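Cross-posted from the bioinformatics board.
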Amino acid sequence: MPPSLSLLRSRSSLSSIALLALATLAACRGGEAAHRRTLVDARDRYDPKSLDPALSTDVPTGRAVSYLFDGLTRFSADAKVGPALATRWDVSPDGRTYLFHLRPGVRFHDGTLLHASDVVHSFTRVLDPANKSGRPWPLYPIAGARAFAAGKAATVAGLAIVDDSTVRISLDTALAIFPKLLAMPVASVVPAKISPDFGEHPVGTGAWTLVSWQHDDFVLLARNAEYFGGAPKLDSLMIRIIPEPSTAVAEFESGNVDLLYVPEADAPRWEQTDEKKALLTSAPALRLWYVALNTTRGPLKDVRVRQALNHAVDVHTILDKLLGGRGRLAAGVIPPTLEGADTARAPYAYDPAAAKRLLAAAGYAKGFDIELWLPQDPAFARVAESIQSYLAAVGVRAKIVQRESAAAREASRNGQTDMFVKDWYADYPDAENFLYPLLHGANRGVGGNVSFYENPAYDRIVSLARTEQDSAKRVTMYAKADSLEFADAPMIYLFFYNELYAVQPWVKGFVAPTIFNGQKFLDVTVTPH
Amino acid sequence: MGALLLRRALLAIPTLAGVVVVAFLLLYVAPGDPVLEMVGERADSATIVRLRKELHLDESLPRQFAHYAGGVVRGDLGRSFITGRPIARDIAERFPKTLELAGSAMLLAIVVGVSLGVLSARHPGGWIDRGALALAYAGVSFPVYWVGLLLILLFAVVLHWLPPSGYGRPVFLVLPALALGSRSIAFLARMTRSSMLEVLSSDFVRTSRAKGAREKVVLLHHALRNALIPVISVLGLDFGSYLTGSILTETVFSWPGIGRYVVNAIGRRDLPAIQGTVLFLSVVFVAVNVITDLAYAAADPRIAYD
């Protein structure tokens, strides 16, 4: 009998059906949370692109790759570089040759032994134009890498197998950060023989092996009992892909997920409830929020105008009121946790009178009209709106232009934006990862310098620091470069954001990572609850 | 019927060709560079130039179109710029899940909507009628996105009856189907009600009552059958809104269907994935329209297409 007929029979049957349905549903509800040794991570908003390290250019992909694979080096949760597949490395006195000694007896998930040739093959593969890798640049410092990537050489000249457990890598020029570049997901080591759909069926040496990947739904990983770094304590790790932040919060509150990235705009609300606050954990992430000022456009060409804009905005209040004070005001681009940061340097003071004086001196006593661009993001939108009102107070009439992310990014890279609200998240924990891509003249546009800032003195110091072998000297150079650019104000310096995670009380041992691929869940446990 | 089917199928070809052209051109007009999305935040211009060449994006627009259209004619939708996976496989993986959701939502809308409509028409102005009217206003007015979040809050977070989101056992289907069907429930309830009222006042209903038929038989056998004809055509036309509605519903409920696939593809400017999905969904839409026409003809003998 069709349900419509039974509904018609009497009014009482309607309510009894409803009750029955509800009882059935209640019986079905998950008791899955209890007694499992799986951790469910709900931090990712979208599916990894692929599980092939060569295609890794974004956080969900990079994080998944780092569970399945290892590089020669790796990052710890507090963003220190350390040995992984290489137990140690020797650097030649001129800093141009690295000898990596491989860990003996490491096996891939399919049981084959790791050889030195796998390392050479993996790096060659990323550089091979046939593989359409979007991010070969971490390997470009290797001698001959660019020529190979351009199809002008048959092999990568700088890669050599010394013996079965030693690889020699020669660089074009000395580069102190090279071991850090090798801890990036794209530099993971893959077996020499790989299947055509390697991105779907990855085989690595990592702490976790792939069980199942349901696109846009979840990635399920199982512990690699043979892992050289000690097998993970959990049985399995599930990465759930939840695109809507409010839904992720609902899943967390229902106890279905164990780990949540608290959206920036929600942070104050979480911190105001004691019960929720107890679940929060945080780390000073290597993430700078700023407003890139295009130094080649209109009034922004004048350094006094750029300084004035910095004085005009009360960043402290913005951070406090809109982001729950989760961060530290920026006085330069180097995060305070990295060497080279001058923690004694004071940020631009909020001083509208000084801003007006600087604007008048630059010939803009009556202010000017300008565009303030941003991608679609609720937290950025609030920040942009308050910046707009602060600027209005000193006579600068900013028009907010909000575009979908890809369109906004393209416009900024093409130099079509006056001011652009954005953030920058480090790929590797080094001051160079901020100074070089964001503000070096060589990286204007697509390289990441959307301020189009160019200062020969700054460029020279940053370039020299990249090749400097003496770490004390290098740190001094970083600090010097940071102070140069801070005075030139190619951006409105906002803050370094402390990322906020919510962790269920039954999860033990989770340390919020400073760098995105620094937490591999080796020591994390889930207690019965 | 066979001739009708053939004629409609032939007519669909120019429609779909138009879709291919428009989908292709729109993406080149829209801002946002697919290669910039492939390389991520920090990139080098050599890689960008190389990728652009490999993906034929450096060629003239007509050549690019010929390249794409050639593939489509051969039945090859190409590979995703971002993931490298074949688009056809991606669609085959996700569309059944969207169909499952849209089908359930539609079934729910028919069962609940038509029942409410019949009950309302039985006693116009009664409490069921007024309640259904309120529900209908709510269903039509609230955006599916918001309804979805409210349902999650009530049934998952507060009451713990249902899982908030995800894909799997039938229990995961309840909330998204309800959210996606809510607008249709409201719409169908109002449609059925007015259609029923019209039919109930017609001569043959009076006659069947006069000959002593029971009220249940009058309502369901005589009246409802006739009242359903306009409802069927509305259902067919509404199918498009199930597909577009699934974009939002799938996002709110983490449902791994084709709606989310296309949203992701647009966000990343994954041209082959967007074009392939748009084309595929157009085919589905055209097919559903043909089926609706056929069903309409079958339901009402007075309708003929020749």
